[in-house]
Amino acid sequence: MTGKLNLDKLDFQIIQAMVDNANISYADLGKKLFVSGGTIHVRIKKMQELGVVRGTKFNIDFKILGYDVIAFIGIYLEKSSLYDSVAAQLKKIPQIVRLNYTTGNYSMFAEVVCKDISQLKFVLHDELQKIKGIERTDTIISLEESFSRNVLVAENEL
């Protein structure tokens, strides 16, 4: 796939540098990689147009903001053909921060961030259970996140 994308060593260096510190200025990144800030800007714009880079976002520590419950919900669908309609309904629930279509025991797997157990109960009982197509759910509460990281992307590995 990268052949069609036509990414080179500099593109991969930019990706890795931005993964490590998305706050770095294009000028500083250019100095680090021995190119101009304008070159960095053009390369990032190209990768955005190709869909390789999909915006930027803050890495937030939810616990500091008072969101004390992180849970994972395994969702069983009545039929796998209901995935698109169920996913559209789940997207409307703001506490669901990630959703994956999966193989194995569950049809879907969702990550939920809530302020407390009462809010989690509301999401499970009042939101999820109302969605047509969901047969049942299994909820796993996270006690602690040990680490979170991006995949190291290197040109020679692709």
UniProtKB/TrEMBL annotation:
GO CC term, one of those recorded: cytosol
GO MF annotation: an example: sequence-specific DNA binding
Residue intervals passing through the bilayer: none
InterPro entries, alphabetized: AsnC-type_HTH_dom (IPR000485), Dimeric_a/b-barrel (IPR011008), Tscrpt_reg_AsnC-like (IPR019888), Tscrpt_reg_AsnC/Lrp_C (IPR019887), WH-like_DNA-bd_sf (IPR036388), WH_DNA-bd_sf (IPR036390)
Entry protein name: Transcriptional regulator, AsnC family
Boundaries of every HTH asnC-type domain copy: 7-68
UniProt-listed SUPFAM superfamilies: Dimeric alpha+beta barrel, Winged helix' DNA-binding domain
